[in-house]
């Protein structure tokens, strides 16, 4: 293929980008998006603070705008994210106990129902595990409602949209370490008990090296019977082009790695200000990392 999306499609995969609704009117941005990418993740527009700014009052504007763009351009949409400790609306941030649990369940039900049939996958739960060596859960208001909050979130999402793939998504899980092993154990437990989980997202906000067991880590999750996806890829550092190729080759080597999403289009669109971690320059030119990514998608 001659674009990221067509090349990935030839390998049975998608190649997506995180998109901000507010940038869709920028013709350089939209031009690259629609030429290169066949999947979209809303960068912020489907998060709790965006979709339910006041309890029980839902706002679909930004998310709907992105879905409409995607439908008009043949791109699939990855929903992000139904629950997270961050970007909660103010009213939820200080809630606790059964009131918060009920609010979470209602939020998941309403959002997954609104976007039913329009998103192919949901990040049902984002970043619920702690960094460091514990392998345990991150403390948060959601975690304090009870350790079963994650499986309740997945069961609620399944009931609302039985057709969507339901994913767990996290960062610093890009190799075999205490955090990724904690998640692995949760997924294994969910599969053994019939808790509905279909996929695991590896954000892959990377520095100047890719873990030597990056592919092996994807594979061990796939071997549990879930799909895996690279969900928020961006890579800083001087070895950027090689590292992008390594990530692409790792995904292609794992048959259940179904797609790759980069977390933005141009360096100037990135949340990592000053790190230039993406595939296009601020003016929209293809970087060396773009070429190495495309070549890796087309190899073999
Ligand atoms: O929308 C408000 C705007 O009204 C206000 O004027 C402005 C002033 O600061 O802020 C705007 O909100 C910002 C929002 O992005 C939309 O631009 C928030 O401050 C800012 O914190 C928010 O950052 C997002 C971040 O998640 C929040 O944690 C980034 O764009 C987004 O790229 C980032 O994405 C996360 C993934 O969801 C999960 N994984 C990590 C990844 C990177 O942090």
Compute the number of helices.
11
Total strands: 9
Round the Cα radius of gyration to an integer and report it: 18 Å
- Strand order in the sheet with the most strands: 1-2-3-4-5-6-8-9
Low-confidence stretches: none
| Content-based structural category | alpha/beta
Bound compounds, please?
A: ligand G3I
Residues in helices, as a percent range: 25-40%
| Biggest sheet features | 8 strands, parallel, barrel
Form type = globular
- Measure the end-to-end span: 13 Å
Overall mean confidence score, pLDDT: 98
| Order of SSEs | HEHEHHEHHEHEHEEHEHEH
What quaternary form is this?
single chain
| Beta-strand percentage range | 15-25%
